[in-house]
Queue: 3 jobs
Job 1
Amino acid sequence: MSLPAPAPRRLSHTRTVVFRGYDREDGLWDIEATLTDVKPYTFQVPNEPSFPADQPIHGLGIRLTIDNDMLIHDVATSLDHIPHAECSQGPMNMHKLKGCRMGKGWRKTIDEKVGGLDGCTHLREMLFNMATAAFQTLPSGQWHRRELAGQPHPVLEHAPFHLGHCVTWAFDSPTVARAYPMFYKPRTTAAPNSDN
C-alpha cells in the first residue's frame, strides 16, 4: 500500500539512516549504522557558521561487534560530519557498551551507559534500532552458516524472541502456525454464558 497523495509541498530535510549486518570470518558479527542529515537550502544556527545546502550536517557511524549471544565485544564510531565542535565529545562513553548484551532491556542499557549528557542523541537513536538490525542479521546468518557448512539445524526448544511481539508473529497467527508450528497456540474461544 502506497501513501496517499500529499498536499502541495517542498522538501525541507532528509535524514537517511542505514543499518547493515556483516558475518565476520572470525565468527563474530558486525552491526553497522550510519546517519546523514541534509537540507536542500543553506541555513544557520545562531552564532555558528552556516550549513551549505545539500551538504551533510550530520554524518555519523557506529559499528558494534557482537557474538552469537549478542554480547558486545567492541564499539567503534565515526563522526565524518558534525554541526558543532562540541559534538566530537558525543562518543566519549560508547566504550561502556562493551560487555553489554543486546536484547531485552537494550534501551535501558543505552540510557544507563550513554544517556543524557553522557552521549549524543543521534548516536543513541541509531543504537536503539541496531538491536533490530542484529535480530535481522543473526538468526538468518546463523542458519546460512550451517547451510554452507552442511550442518543440521538445531531443534528449537524455546520460542524465538520475535514471537508474540507483533500482529504477524502472534502465537495464534497463521504465520506462526506455518513457520513455527511447535509454538503455535490457537486462540481459545470463550465458553458460552450458561447463566442465560
Note: The CA atoms of residues 23 and 29 lie 5 Å apart.
Job 2
Amino acid sequence: MARIGIQLMMLKDHVAEQGIGPVLQRVHETGFEVVEVSQIPMTEENVAGMEAARESLGIEVAAISAKTSVPAGSDELSLEHDVDLHIEHARRLGTSMLRIGMMPMSALRSREAFDDFAAEADAHAQRLAAEGLSLSYHNHHVEFAKIEGETLLDRLRRKAPHLRFEIDCHWVQRGGFDPERTLKAFDGVLDLVHLKDFRIAMPPAEVLESMESGDRDVFAQFWQADIVQFAEVGQGTLDWRPVIEQAIASGAEHLLIEQDRTYGRDIWESLDMSREHLVSLGYEALITTGGPRWPSRSH
C-alpha cells in the first residue's frame, strides 16, 4: 500500500544529540508513521532503536540507504564490502528496499567511469534481488546532464536494467525537467519518490541594500545560488496533486517528505507545514493508519 512518510536525513542532528528513540517518538507525535533512513549511522544502537520503534510505535521503515563503494580506509558501510550487513539491517527493520542516495563523484569523470558505476550498481541490484530486496537510485539535478545526447538518468536506467528508482521531485525541477512527466516516464521501475518543493525566494533586504551601496558580489551570490530554495510541501511552485497521483499510478510504494534546508525555520515546524498541506489535498489516509489507502501495483 502506498504511504507518505519522511526522510530521516532531516533529523540527523537531532538523532546525534538525542538518540534515535526520542526522535522517532517525536516523529510519531508529529503525525508520521513511515521513515526512510539516510545519513543516520547504522550502529547497533541505532538499528536496535529503530527495531524498538517498530514494535512500540508502529514506525514503518520504507527503505535504508547504501553506497556502492567507499574510499579506502573509510569506516562507512558499502555494498562492496558489507552487503550481508545491509541485508541483515533490512530484514531487522522490516523493509525490502535499499536506495543509493548519490553516485560516487568519480563516476562523473568520464563516460567510461559512469558506465562502470552503472554496471556496479546493476550487479548489486541483482545480488539483492536474489535475497528478495530491491535497490533504487535517487537522483539529483546532475543526472540530467547528458552524455552523447542522453541524460545520465536515462543512461543509468539503460545500463543498469535491474536497478529501480527513487525520483526526487525538487531535483527534477531544478534539472530543468517536469516532475509529473518524469514520474510517468519511470512507470514500472519506480519504488520511491521524494516530495520536496521548489521555491524561488525574494531577495532579503540586506542583499538589496548591499547592491545599492555598490557591493554587487552579495547580490550575485544570492542570484546565482540562493534564489532557488528547498521548500516545505505546498510552499513552493510544484503542483502536488497531479505529481502525487502520477507517482502512485507509476507504482511508487513510498513518498517521502524531504527538505535539505529550512533557512532558519525549525524542522518540526516545516514538517507540520508539509503535512498540513498534504492533508488539505486529501492525503491524510496515506500518512496515518485508520483509513483507506491507495492500492499499489505489484512489480
Note: Residues 291-299 have pLDDT under 50 and may be disordered.
Job 3
Amino acid sequence: MTAPRQARDAARAIVPATLGRDPGPMTAAESGSHHVHIGSDVVVKLIDGAGHSRLEREVALAPHLPAGLTAPLLGSGLHRLGARDVRYACYARMPGAAPGIGMPGVDAVTARSLAREAVGRLEALHDWTPAGHADRTLREALDHGGFTGRDALLAEVEELAALDRHGAVSSRLLDGLTAIAERAPLRARAVVPVHADCHWGNWLALDRSVTALLDFEWARFGEPADDWFFLARFSGPHLETVLDVIARATGTCPETLRVACEAREAAHLVSDLRVAPERSDARARPATDRLGELEELVVGRHWWRHAR
C-alpha cells in the first residue's frame, strides 16, 4: 500500500496534471480502502494500481449516473509513483459533510429530513435505465456478500456452522440465523441499479438537505431493498424514523421492509464470518465485532425491537 506521505505528494501532483491548476492545501480524509485527499474544491481518491478494481467501476459509471446524484468526475487514470502505478479519480468537492455512520449528533427532525431526501435520490437511481457501457458495468459479476435468496442464505448458514470448528458462533445464533433465512424472501431480483453501500458515511449533507451520494464502487443491479437496508441499518437511534420514511415513500408494508432488511444484514454477517477462520490474529477483531452485531441481530432482534 502506498505510504501516506507518498499518497499526499501524488495527490498534489495529480491535480495540476489533470486540471491544470494548483489544488492549494489538501488534507487526508479517513478511508478504509483508499487514500483520499481533499482540497478546497477537489477530492482525489488513490489506490495502488494492483489493488482492487472497484475504483475503475466507479469511474466507468460516474459520467452516466442521474444528474445531481453524485460529485462530478473531473478526471481519472494512472499516475506513476516511484516504481509502480497508482490509480486515481478526481472529483469536484461537493458542499456539506457526511452525517456519519450512526448519524451521531443528528437530531430527530434533521434525521427525518435527510432520510426523505436520501430516499428521493435513491429512487432516482432505481428509476434510471442505464445503457451501453454503464449497463455492462452494472452487470459485471461482483462478490458483494449480500442477500441473493432464501436457499442461498440457508446454505451459507450451514457452511458457516461447518467452518466454525471452534464454536465461536453459538448454536443459539446459528438457529436464529436459520430462522431469519427461513422467513426471508424466496429470491432477490437484479432489476434496478442500486448503490449497495449507501450508509450515512457515504452521503454529504448541508443543514437538513443531502447534497451528494458518494462511492459507487459496489454499484450493481439489485432491488431497492438492497439500498433501504444500508440507509436504515446505519442510522443509529433514528432507525425507526428512517424505516418509516422508506415505508411511506415507497408504499412498502413495514413488516415486509423489516424482513427484507433483516435478511440482508444476516447475509452480510454470514459472508464476513465465513472467512473469519482463515484470517490471522491481526484481523481477529473484525470477526469479534461481527459476532457482536450477530448477537444484536438475533438475540436483540434489532429489526423488530420497536415494531408495532
Note: Residues 4-92 form a domain with the Phosphorylase Kinase; domain 1 fold (CATH 3.30.200.20).
